[in-house]
Structures are given as C-alpha cells and as structure tokens.
Amino acid sequence: MVSYLPHDKFSGFTVIYRVFAMIIFFIPVLILSNWGIISYLDFEKEFVESLYQIAGFVFSSAAIGFGIKKSWPEVVNTGNVFFTIFLYTKFYDWWWDWMPKYIFFLIIGLTAILILLLFKRLRNPVIEDEQEVSG
Asked: What is the pLDDT of residue 132?
C-alpha cells in the first residue's frame, strides 16, 4: 500500500516498494508452505502446508494478472518468479524421492520451456494491442 502514496521527491521508489512488498509477503508464504509446523494456526501440519501452497499459487497468479492489467512489469516478473518457485517446490515434493533424477530434471526443463512459450503467447496479443493503440 505504501507504493500508492505520492512520492514526488523519489520517483523510482514506487517500483522498489512494490517488489519488496511482494517479497516480504511471498517468502513467509513459501516457508510456511514447506514447514507448516512453525505456523501459529492450530491445524494439522499437512493442512497448513496445503493452505499456504494454495495461497502462494493464487496470490502469485493474481500478482501476474494485476501486473499485466496495470502495466507494471516488476509485479509481473516477481509474480512469475514466485509462481515458478512454488511450482518447482511442488514438483520436488511429488517426484524427487521416487523418480530417477535425470527424468526429474528433464521434466523441470520441459516445464521451463512450456512456461516460456506460454508467456510468449500471452505477451504477443498485449504487444499487438499496444501497437494498435500507439499506431
């Protein structure tokens, strides 16, 4: 919310406030999604971890969408980073113990390529719309 206050004297601080606010929010969510035992919530560890994992995915996706809507690339990029971290930690939880490591890293690489292709596909209509508006 600090980024919405007027900063006439320091114009570049709005971006920094947004990024650091997201980092301050997402790092505890990431920690609690993996170690739910340290939470103050009086539920079972697995439930708390699931709750924070869902919150991490939902809020990072919402940050990506909100950043695209407001044309804030720093919010989009930070949301992408945390969405990817949440996704890769879930992959680790699901597959690390029983899957051969070369297949695990193959899946990680293919997922990275898929994410890049998806973002490229999502970005093209946005760029075309901006060119139509400016042209």
From this structure: 66
